[in-house]
Amino acid sequence: MTTANVIANTPVAPRKPWKATKADYIPLFVIFVLAAVLDIIVVAVTPMKGKLAYALLFFIFASGFQMALKWYKLGKRAAIDSLAGSVAITGAIIAFTPVASLLATAIVKGVKGLYPGFFYHDMSVANYQSPLNQGGVIQAIVGTLYLIFLSTAISLPLSVLTALYLTEIRGKASGFIQFLVQAMSGIPSVVAGIFIYSALLLTTSLRGSTIMAALALAILMIPTVTRTAQEVLLLVPRELREAGLALGATQWKTVATIVVPAARNGLITAVILGVARIAGETAPLLFTLGVSNKINWNPFSGGQSALPYYVWSGLGDGTELGIDRAWSGILVLLMLVLSLFVVARIFGTRKVKIK
Amino acid sequence: MSSNVIERVLPEKRALINRPRPSDIAFRAILNVMSYSSLLILAAIGGFLAFRGFGAFKDNGFGFITHAEWSSLVGDDGKEISTFGLGAMITGTLIISTIALFIGVPISVLTALFLTFYAPERLKRTLVTVVDLMASFPSILYGIWGFIVLSPMATYWAKLVYKFLGWIPFLSVPTPAFDRSPFLAGIVLSIMIIPIVTSVSREIFAQTPLERMQAAYALGATRWGMIRAVALPFGASGVVGGAMLGLGRALGETVAVYSVLNIVFKINWHILYGYGGNIASMIVQKFGEASFTEKKALLAAGFVLFVMTLLVNMVANTVVSRAVKSGK
To answer: What separation in angstroms does the CA of B137 have from each of A11, A329, B105, B141, B203?
Structure first.
């Protein structure tokens, strides 16, 4: 065996000289401690006060010391590079702080009003100023489920057929339709609401009901479902379609028995994302849903309740108890949206992007 | 005899058909018709709102866009005397959206740069999920959070800004009232547009050609040098498109703005001062007690909002899709 062979056959752990070792983190740690100490001293001594002062000074000290260190060790360009890195990390921290605050506040404030009856009582036995152990959101949960079911039933056929047109037929109008679907995704939710109001409720004897609100929500749902469904259908390999056609199947047979089943999980994801988009919409409901404080099983007549509407009313009530109720409502709504999101992730055969 | 057996095995020769089967004709016809549903819906929205709101446009003329006054009174003779003008609301909407972009876009671009070029792989995947999650939060959550949690903080910040920068015209206030200001609404909106601007920018940055990045490094660039020389010029148009998509969202946001803004029909250029305007929120605010005539004027306002957001979104989508295409 030659030496060359021995070298070739011996597994050598790759060395990564560019990776930071533990020793490299020591100055960083020292800098953070130093910055924190200085931060506290400066805030205590000078008239600057508050969380904002702490955050700002810590940023200045920590990034300043790092810059100084880099300048000393590697020169000016490394110092500027270090500053850019600090700024980018700070930007990301600023972006993600509200998420943490939103979730934490919703949980802390929402849990206060939760009790088992919250999930099976309705609001006909209580009002927004009643103690928190009376009344609940069952009517709103039923209403939201009705809305989800009906708007899915309305928007699913339209969206999937449009997506199939864009991926299977690719007709002359494809570019135009694509453009329209994108334009539709920018319709403000309030416009969808007043559109249904102006078209169906303003001059007729019809009154707000579940189906009216579902129509408004379907308008908002169509673009999301169409775009996700289109992305999923494009992922189905061309060879599958060609194989179907080569075996003598018609295009309809190919689509119905090969393409759509192949994309099934992705299509489920598309629907779930669409549902997550509309489940928390409030504005359209204000014009189209009517009012109800108990369960209304009939979706075609009479007012209905929904979780976002419950939260809205609690907030509009303005009293402390009303706002506590609103937080509990939003917690239930958030749990619903988050579980939909998780289910979409599990079904998702691809990385789900929300555009 | 053996040849007979073979003849029996061979299937009868079928005629070749190259015209579409009835099932395909029906299938394609249905898809062709259904694909126009989006056009139908958009046309119906524009048509109905314009039709119902036509009276308001006709009565107020061009003043419907420019005047700031919005009043509807029943006079002594039982007739309604009404003036409808969206001036304050349109300027208010634009001011709030500008504040939102001013705060939200830099933060989003920094976040996108961090996610693409700085974050370790696992942290990156988690944070990308969080960004998507943020986009699916109900808007009323942002509203109630802005009202309860952010509002006191923002008032404090507004006072600080006023103390140090109060000499700048639009940062001054006539009297020290900082609650429910356009500034607060702008901050809430900036948080709401962060997910969309971040995800669009991140997608563009992620397409930065590897060769160019490696070329920059090979020439001795630092990471920031590479970002400035390669990634930012490459992603600029995508960032602009993402910001415009964010603008489209900010223009049409209703519930969150309604929860935190004091809506007054008076043009307010002092962004820290406690009142402002917003078309979408105004529609919600006025709708409950509106008379028939006023409702029609509100539908006309909805038409104005629809046209504004549609235009912004169309431009934004064109910019983004061009940016994505040129990246490939």
So the answer is: 50, 14, 19, 7, 21
Can you give the C-alpha Rg of chain A in angstroms?
A: 28
Sequence-distant (6+) residues with CB within 8 A of A300 are: A209, A210, A211
Residues 6+ apart with CB under 8 A from A306: A140, A143, A144, A147, A213, A285, A289
User: In B, residues 154-193, which contact A (CB 8 Å cutoff)?
Assistant: 156-157, 160, 191
Q: Which of residues 235-254 of A touch B (CB under 8 A)?
A: 250-253
A155 to chain B: closest CA residue? B37
Map tokens 């508050």 to a residue. A50
Query: Residue written as tokens 């939060």?
Result: B137
Domain A123-347, CATH 1.10.3720.10 — does that match? yes
Question: How confident is the model over A180-234, as pLDDT tens digits?
Answer: 998 898 899 999 999 999 999 888 888 889 999 999 999 999 999 999 999 899 9
pLDDT of residue B175: 82
Within 8 A by CB and 6+ apart from A208, the residues are A201, A287, A288, A289, A290, A291, A303, A304
What pLDDT sits at residue A351?
41
In angstroms, how far is CA A304 from the centroid of its own chain?
25
The total of other beta-carbon atoms located within 10 Å of residue B91's CB is 18
Distances (CA, A) of B152 to A57, B145, B178, B249: 22, 11, 10, 25
- Chain B residues within an 8 Å CB radius of A186: 245, 248-249, 252, 309-310, 312-313, 316-317
Beta bridge partners, B72, equal: B82
Of the residues A16, A89, A190, the best mutation for testing chain B's interface (the one with the most B CB atoms within 10 Å of its CB) is A190
- Would you call B319 helix, strand, or coil by DSSP? helix
Q: Which residues of chain A have a CB within 8 Å of the CB of B195?
A: 354
For domain B86-289+297-327, is the CATH number 1.10.3720.10?
yes
B30 close contact with A: CB closer than 8 A: yes
Q: What are A8-46's pLDDT values in tens digits?
A: 666 777 777 777 777 778 888 888 888 888 888 888 877
CA–CA distance, B124 with B122 (Å, rounded to integer):
5
Beta bridge partners of B71: B83
Q: Which residue has the higher pLDDT, B310 or B323?
A: B310
* Contact state of B302 with A195 under an 8 Å Cβ cutoff: yes
Kindly give, in sequence order, each residue whose CB lies less than 8 Å from that of residue B166, ignoring residues fewer than 6 positions away: B172, B173
Going from N- to C-terminal start, the domains of chain A cover 20-111, 123-347
Distance from C-alpha of B176 to C-alpha of B187, rounded to nearest angstrom:
19
The Cα of A9 is separated from the nearest Cα of chain B by a number of Å equal to: 31
Do the beta carbons of residue B106 and residue A246 sit within 8 Å?
no
CB of A294 closer than 8 Å to CB of A124: yes
Indicate which of B103, B109, B126, B137 best probes the interface with A, i.e. most A CBs within 10 Å of its own CB: B137
Closest chain B residue to the Cα of A280, Cα to Cα: B138
**pLDDT tens digits for range B1-29:** 455 555 567 777 888 878 888 889 999 99
Helices A138-164 and A210-235, interaxial angle, to 10°?
A: 40
Report the distance separating Cα B36 and Cα A181, nearest Å. 10
Record: contact A251-B145, CB cut-off 8 A? no
Task: Enter the pTM of the model.
Answer: 0.88
Compute CA distances A344 → A5, A81, A268, whole Å: 51, 39, 8
